[in-house]
Structures are given as C-alpha cells and as structure tokens.
Amino acid sequence: MKVSLRKIVPIFAAFLSAFAAMQLHAASAQDGVSSNELVKESGWQTVQENCTKCHSAQIIVQNSGSREVWKSRIVWMQETQGLGELNLDIENSILDYLAANYGQLASSRRPAIRPGFLPTNPEPNQ
Ligand code: HEC
Question: Mind listing the pLDDT tens digit for each residue in 17-36?
C-alpha cells in the first residue's frame, strides 16, 4: 500500500498543532495557579517572619485587599486567633507590603445595566 505524503502531512500537522495548543494551555493554567510563596518585594522578610508561624504564606497570597482590609484581618487574628500585638513599625511595614503586592482586585463583574437600557418588562404587574 502506498501512503501518499499529501495525505499524511496535513494529518501530522493537525496533530502537531493540537499538541502545541495543549502545551500552551498547560502553561497558562500553571501561570494561573499562584505561587505559595510571598512575592520577593521590599519588606517580604518581615511578613515571612511574622505571618507564617501559624499558617503558610499560601493563605496570605491567595487573599487580596486594601490596606484597611489587611489591617482588619490582622485585628481579627489578634482578637480571635491568638496573634499578639505587633510593633507599630513592623505592622506598618507588613501593611505596606500587603497593600502594594496583594492589593484590592478590581471587580470582574460587569456593571449593572442602566435602567434606560433595560428592555421593558413584559409582565409589569408581577
Ligand atoms: C498566632 C497565629 C497567627 C499568626 C502569627 C498570623 N495568623 Fe493569620 N491566621 C491565623 C489563623 C488561626 C487563621 C485562620 C486559619 C484558617 O481559617 O484556616 C488565620 C487566617 C489568616 C488569613 C485568612 C483570613 C480570611 O479571611 O480567610 C489571612 C489573610 C492571614 N491569616 C494573614 C496573616 C498575616 C498577614 C499575618 C501577619 C501579620 C498573620 N496572618 C499571622 C493565625 C495567625
């Protein structure tokens, strides 16, 4: 049986591109998984020292929030989870680091449709 190259090459190319697409997908899926380690930006050692005794850094890096939100988490841990008082300079350094590197994420939801752009309600009496 003679197998023509003209038939084989496109099939081979299709397999190759499917494989390449899978590789790309795997790579981007991996990028999406955040590292369990703190970003090595200014002040990270202070966070490492003070914030990873009771839990790993993972719980920190998977959270986000403004400075106030991070402050409220610290207060919550102090009031309910046995976190001691932090030296003011240390606390400020931690909050600066967290707000800068794990700041408030923008909402991914689309804004609500303005009333003028909504279709009329077909059953207004309900
Ligand atoms: C004395 C122990 C202790 C220390 C030190 C500590 N934490 Fe925690 N933290 C906890 C406990 C306990 C929880 C709850 C864990 C759980 O839900 O599995 C927690 C939860 C968290 C959470 C998740 C809160 C939520 O809303 O789910 C974050 C974020 C966090 N800690 C950040 C920090 C940061 C930042 C520091 C350093 C200032 C820190 N932790 C230091 C005990 C501690």
Answer: 766 666 555 444 444 445 79
- The contacts of residue 67 (CB under 8 Å, 6+ apart) are 95, 96, 98, 99
End-to-end CA distance of the chain: 73
Domain positions in the chain are: 44-101
- How remote is the CA of residue 102 from the centroid of ligand 1, in Å? 15
Q: pLDDT tens digits for 69-120?
A: 999 999 999 999 999 999 999 999 999 999 999 999 887 778 888 888 888 8
**Does residue 73 line the site of ligand 1, with CB under 6 A?**
yes
Query: Is 1.10.760.10 the CATH number for 44-101?
Result: yes
Report CA(44)–ligand 1 centroid distance (Å): 16
Residue position matching structure tokens 């003028």: 116
